[in-house]
Design goal:
mainly alpha; elongated; about 160 residues
């Protein structure tokens, strides 16, 4: 596949990945702020569905097109492509946060949603939500930093 076509798909994947994470963060914060069990419960279900669908698709597109573009980069003797290495590290870290911390918290919260109608929203939901918020902000900041390396290509 032509380099510019790969680059376009790569940018599209980044838009899906970063866009979904940003919208998910806003959606979850705003719905949790209502403290209404029906709104929070619905939001949690939608967050889980859209986060999995869009984030996983975005990650897949980024990885596949990134590897394909890296194969097409000119090999210059003695030249380090640190911007590519930083990009890969930042993406891996963001994805790891998503898989290891964010998805398990979302799964726990989704199980709690089932009992909202009978028991209300338990304090554990809010505690998990605060942890989720911290790591979600970090998981979004990493690919935004990645944009810097991909555009400016320092080092």
């Amino acid at each position: 596949m032509e380099y510019l076509s790969l680059k376009m798909l790569h940018i599209f994947g980044a838009m899906i990945f970063i866009g979904n994470m940003t919208v998910t963060l806003c959606w979850k914060v705003l719905s949790d702020k209502t403290r209404d069990a029906k709104i929070v419960g619905f939001s949690q279900k939608v967050v889980n569905i859209t986060d999995f669908l869009f984030s996983s698709v975005g990650i897949f597109i980024i990885l596949v097109t990134g590897l394909m573009m890296a194969d097409q980069l000119p090999q210059v003797e003695g030249q380090e492509l640190n911007w590519v290495n930083w990009g890969v590290r930042l993406l891996i870290t963001s994805v790891a946060l998503w898989i290891v911390i964010l998805l398990p918290i979302q799964a726990k919260q989704a199980m709690m949603v089932r009992d909202f109608s009978t028991e209300g929203i338990p304090e554990l939901y809010w505690k998990l939500g605060r942890t989720w918020l911290v790591f979600a902000v970090i998981a979004i900041a990493l690919p935004l930093a990645n944009l810097y390396f991909m555009v400016y290509k320092p080092m």
